[in-house]
Structure formats: structure tokens, C-alpha cells
């Protein structure tokens, strides 16, 4: 879910119905910040979105126009695809394999 706050410079992102961790995203507002937009992680993935149903969320995101820049891959650790946000930041959509040590710690 998206919740605009602090005028229009920031937005809080959290899963629907979540009472837990949220993510605050802030828009660059100074010239020295703008130079880094889309490259906060130096060309690497910036954030990971964990899901309990990769294909459901991948297909929904595709249908809503999300730009995936790396196709889904099944890896030893789980299923993953990389998408780009409106500002060029890279995100992983990730469903961990059931036997992955972190699988019981997410969601």
C-alpha cells in the first residue's frame, strides 16, 4: 500500500494490512541528491521485495506496467526477477526456496 505523507515529497510503502515494517521513500529535493537518483546502489539491486507467490505477483506487476529488466530465474535460493522503478532503481522480486535458511524469517 502507498501512503503519501509530508506534503508530496515522501511516500510510505507497506504490504496490505501490515502492522509491521514499512519503507519510507523520499523524492530528491536538492541538486546534489538529484545526481544520484537511479544509482543509489551503484548499478546493483537496491531493495528486495519478498513474496509468498512469485508468479502471482510477477504477473500482476507485469499487467500493471512494471518494467522487468531481467527475466524470472529459478535459482538454488529461490525464484527472482529484477525490475526497475520510475527513477531507474533496481529491485528484486523474490520468493525464497522453502529450504532457504531465511525463508522462515520473511513474510
From TrEMBL:
User: What InterPro entries does the entry give?
Assistant: Glyas_Bleomycin-R_OHBP_Dase (IPR029068), Glyas_Fos-R_dOase_dom (IPR004360), VOC_core (IPR037523)
Keyword Transmembrane appears in the UniProt entry: no
Q: Where is the VOC domain?
A: 1-96
Keywords noted in UniProt: Dioxygenase, Oxidoreductase
Q: Name one GO molecular function term.
A: dioxygenase activity
Cross-referenced PANTHER family: GLYOXALASE/BLEOMYCIN RESISTANCE PROTEIN/DIOXYGENASE, GLYOXALASE_BLEOMYCIN RESISTANCE PROTEIN_DIOXYGENASE
The organism encoding this protein is Colwellia psychrerythraea (Vibrio psychroerythus)
Q: What is this protein called?
A: Glyoxalase/bleomycin resistance protein/dioxygenase
